[in-house]
Amino acid sequence: MRPAPAGEDWRGLAQRLPRQLRFGVSTWSYPGWEGLVWDGEYDPGTLSKHGLEAYHRHPLLRTVCVDRTFWRPLTAGQYAAYAAQADEDFRFVVKCPASVTDAQVRGDEGKALKSNPDFLDPRLVVEHFVQPTLAGLGAKLGVLVFQLSPLPWGWLGRSGALLGGLGRMLAAVREALPADAPVIVAVEVRDPELLGRTLVDTLKAHGATFCLGLHGKMPPIEAQLPMLRALWPGPLVCRWNLNRIFGPYGYADAQKKHGPFNAIVSEDPHTRAVLARTIHGVTGAGQPAYVTVSNDAEGCAPLSIQKLALAVEAEQEASRRAKASP
């Protein structure tokens, strides 16, 4: 597949950004990105299988979030097929299957059917997730994301049991990762009640970080940043998934409004500005930053990333001017 020539217009900016900063999208099979990411008309099936061949050549797109793993575990061979489409500098962000990180077994429409007996199971997380990703992606594995789906009150009311189980799972993950592997382990939550010192302590104890989840079910970015400050120094992992104007359950509405995902439709300058300052602070201290964006954030993930990159560059320039002034 061919990359869009317009992508080259961003190479100079990409070279001025911190090397430890990686922008990417959340899934990539969108024909509407013709002219932005790929040069030609491709159907979603072709893009799903082969789109990374063009995607990874865009100078601003140095990572991608593999979301499909949340719904069903992938094999080492499937991960290897993805890795084969990207160069050696590229890194993958991968979500753990919901079969481990959701406390409930759900039907096709997301309705809870029963309690999940495998919730936070240390053995399954290694066998179904850590080992296949390592075997298939190798050195191109950048971040393992463990998104805890919205929890029933039976779990939220027993934070000690919940965080104990999370800690045991994270310990198994760390043991399964090679000691010299620079893989970031990040935990994302969908319940604001979990934000606080006890979660911070659990993450610290097992060498994990907090993933900023930007969408309507969680507080805005500035209300989540204290979690990162409490874990400092450490990396930034951020998934900008949904514009808050659509509410906590507005993914379908966002898709309807934003399609075919080739333009900024629901601009969110506030989130972008705070995120750019956060990126600048983290990378300025020498820490890595992985930031993935969905079309549901503003309408077109590649264009959102371009605006974010420009905002980060502006932060860098403002910092240089401040240091140079008497």
UniProtKB/TrEMBL annotation:
Superkingdom, taxonomy of origin: Bacteria
Pfam families, sorted: DUF72
InterPro entries: DUF72, UPF0759_sf
SUPFAM superfamilies: TM1631-like (SSF117396)
Protein name: Glutamate synthase (NADPH)
Source organism of this protein record: Castellaniella defragrans (strain DSM 12143 / CCUG 39792 / 65Phen)
Lineage, uppermost ranks: Bacteria, Pseudomonadati, Pseudomonadota, Betaproteobacteria, Burkholderiales
